[in-house]
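Final paragraph of the annual report: two paired records, presented back to back.
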Amino acid sequence: MDKYEKVIALARRRGFIWPAFELYGGAAGFYDYGPLGAPLKRKIEDLWREFFVIKEGFCEIECPTIGVEDIYVASGHLSGFSDPLTECKECGEIYRADHLIKHIIEVPDALSGEEIYTVIQENDIFCPECSGDLSQIYEFNLMFKTAIGPGSRQAGYLRPETAQGMFINFPRLLRYYRDRLPFGAVQIGKSYRNEISPRQGVIRLREFSQAEAEIFINPRDKSHPRFDEVEDLKLILYSEEDQEREGGQPREMTIKEAVDKRIIAHQTLAYYVARTYQFLMEAGLSRDRLRFRQHKKDEMAHYAADCWDAEASLERFGWIELVGVADRTDYDLRSHMAQSQTNLSVFVPFDKPRRQEKLVVKPDMKKLGPIFRNKAKAVAEALKSLDIEELEKETISVVVDGETVEIGSDLVSFEMVEETIRGEEIVPHVIEPSFGIDRILYTVLEHSCYEEMVDEETRTVLKLRPKVVPIQVAVLPLMDRDELMAPAEEITDVLKARGIYVEYDSSGSIGRRYRRNDEVGTPYSITVDYKTLEDKTVTIRDRDTMAQVRAGVDELPDTILALLREELEFGEAGVPLRS
């Protein structure tokens, strides 16, 4: 049994993750989060909010998970969000064609369908199930299509990402931020992709949770005012250059060094790479199994200036992407401008007003009207677009509706005037950190799960961080007796009243209950014993070291909260370790 099987078995047994629709046979690519998985997921999301909403000051919005067709025409999802498929001519099994040639082509998704099929034929690749011949490649769009309202009059799609909600709300967000850049908006919610064959548990889902931030910045200034807060942070970076170089390996360097050497394109992108790293560390990932890999040119989106993936190492799947941090330039806003015919530019004032000369062209409409009639306005607009050299000619030529029209110089006048320019209209660029919450949750489980031998028994531990752990404290009466259960229940109520997530457990031996709580990540267990009845003290047991201390019942909520906030080291609760 490999690590993945152990983690999934634990997750199913203890109520973290269950296959969805199990009563009816299930369906690949869908999972339920159980009594421990749901709070773990929410706490990871709340930790993300702490980073991006509270600390960064971005607003959070919530948009429908169904979008109208025009959104995905503009975003490119209708035309380009598809996978190349091939079908076995014998058994009918369907495959991602690019996945079949991964061992031959390093980045197969950069190839066209015809090129992939050529590789399949030249390398004698057949159906993995029955060795039958494979069909020509065809494209399969990954969006779930639906109809809005009766009669199928309006097509709708389940959103494949949360990002588009922020882009189409840009005008309202701009007003909310008082027409000033930079600003950011975030959204956490469900996205949907009709994956061909999701066979990697929660790593590849058809319904999944994303947390995305869209940070709108001035393309003229990609520095970050708080860059000094992260510049000394050291990360493992796997640059495009290192990937292309024979024998190249990821390198550890500071964020400042990466920007100074132009490994990361600019400060703002590097700043959010650093914040992504800090978030993942807080969530509980292992530092030595995390790296940031730069997209190579043949995998970079055509509109992106630079993109880095936070990748985690998993025992079964190798390096998988958890987060993408990209400079998407102005592609998204310009696409929606063109599709919606709405101006999404922003007026950015200069530090000081500027004086500049401007060519003013004045067509004589009284003369143009009788000559060109209904084309007069178009001729006038064409004249206004000419430069001074064209306007100085005796006969001026313009093209109107594909036809060249010649105009006498007496029909138009022009002059150079000096004007004050107070700013400029720009289309913002977008920095997008995009987080896959389900993948992060699984990675937290795998990276925090370990086994050790204790008294010739195997102890399984989830070393979850206090900020994300579903159960913060277990209250355990030493034995299932009324005189111990009553004070234990009272302690449970007091801790709950202070906002602490508490599990009360009186079933089975105390050793077995300790093991149960170790297995689900509970960092502290409180044992109520007969000494509690004498001096109002309880035993606090640490999950990781199994060390125990006694602490007073009256101070217990403050002690537990201090331990959870990591303000108090275990063993410093004012009493010595219990022998």
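The closing record of the year follows.
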Amino acid sequence: MSLSKQLLILVSAIFLIIFSVNFLLSVNKIRGYLEVESQVHAQDTATSLGLSLSPYIANENDPVLETMINAIFDMGYYGEIKLVNVDNKPLVTVKNDSSFTEVPQWFIDLLPIKTATAESEISSGWSIGGTVYVTINPGFAYLKLYQLAQSSFNYALITFAGAVLLLFLILRFMLLPLKAINELALAIADGQFKTIEKLPWTLEVKNVAVSMNTMSKKIEGAINGFNSKLDSIGKKLQLDDLTGLHKKSSFETDMKHLFMADIDAFVFIIKIDGLASLVKEHGSDTIDRFLKRFADLLKDVSARYEPGTVTPYRFFGSEFAILARRLSREQAEQLAQSVSALLAGLGEDYRRKDIAHIGIAMFNPLGTTTDILAAANEAFEQAQLIGSNSYYFRIDSNHAKDITEWKDLVFNIIDQKAYQVSYIGEIKQFATDTVLMEEAFTQAFDQQGKPIPIGTFVSIAEKFAKIVELDQGVTQQVMNHIKAQGIHHAIAINLSTRTVKNADFRSWLADELKHSAIAAQLVFSISAYAVAKELDVYHDFFEFIHSLGAKVMLKRFETQSMPLNMAKNLRPDYIRLARDLSNDLSGNESKQTFIETMQQAAQLLDIVILAENVQSDDDYALMRVMGLHGASR
């Protein structure tokens, strides 16, 4: 119940008590007054009538007696006037037993009025000639009392209604700041750290508003601090300490993103063949300077293109790579020539004619990162045979099927629902050591029964808009599995961007979960990179999923894909860290600091942090100590 209603009820109750007591006292006081007034009036009438009848009482049969009594009786509110002689024999008696229908019986029963009766002796000379008795009719007193009570009640009711209306308006005005404070609290819970600009004038409420503003600013400052720290540590984790180039883990992440985007690209593998001989002739400082110069040359080349087009990496030791996006074959050839020329110039500075070679493979959206790197390494071996600092393009693909065959195969599998859904990646909750979540994994097979790489299968389905049907079928199988097996933990379902945007899928899902008790066990898993590309679309989708009672998870999370500041606006239920962040923690303080900072920020935002595919027992135990909610192995 709202505070305004409580105050209204309280004030109304106090008013009712005061009114009731005052009303009863007033009515009783008026009743007493009417009783006294009736008694006085009866006595005055009896005395006056006794004096008037005195000259005629000697003759008991004198008609003047009755005439005078009737005249008096007709002029007042009397119930009875009776004249008796000295022997107490009635001489004249007049009565009026009429009652007033305006006065309800319950009122008469509740407030009885004593009937006022007075008497006066009539003198006849020096002796008593008779006695007159006057009784007031109480009906007139009841009518007067009822009218006064009714009038008082009506005025009190009008006063009460006006007072309540005025109180309601005053409370509405006074408690309006509480609404702003409530909205601010909800905004803070949603990760929106606003402040109340117009402070209320009521001192106590003003103090609460000031405290809320202070808390909001402090939490915002803490979150911003965490974001800056995560961004700094994230960049440090992604970059090679010596050269400042991105590491191989960043390359693998970028390749995953590339599979999601339908664009042309080339992968360059650059290996410094002459590094071993340089190490024998020069010290480690010289080699470090050489690698830095080489890295700077790659940075200079990439800077000639639009940001995000050409990215250099250092895998390890003398092995480097370049990922070139949105380049034609001719542009890729020009890039290779530029790098080759820079290699030749660098080699001359160190008196080495042949210092490195370049292998280039075309990005194959139907392949895997491993396959593409293998093709680039084969091209590197060919480049070694060509000449000094040379390069070689590997354009052909080893993929066994052309695009038409793949399309027919994928369409047939999805139409026939010939795929299988298994449940992998069991995430255990650290606090209870119970299963928190599993992931639905789709498997498909060709005509020979050989498994199809899931990346290729999903890529074809996405390319030809068949992915929505696949995601819907997988979701249906997961729901059936939960019901049939009596599953109590959550199951994560991967969805594509095309499915998220599909109105028919949303309508179908809403119908399926409308009266379902398993909604809370469905966790829709989305790549953090995909969400960052279309933030508004996913923000709307997350709200839709939450309205159904289901949950959402950002998977493969790292600051390279999405900053935490962006994730707070989406309010996901879970964030699952990228595999690279979940392993090799024991000897890596940067990763430990990153995860600890991530956990602290997520606690403020009420987001659960999970780890994926933890290999080492030490890393698993360390994550438990850090306070993560759970992890898979």
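DSSP finds 20 helices and 17 strands in the chain. This concludes the annual technical report; the extension proposal builds directly on these records.
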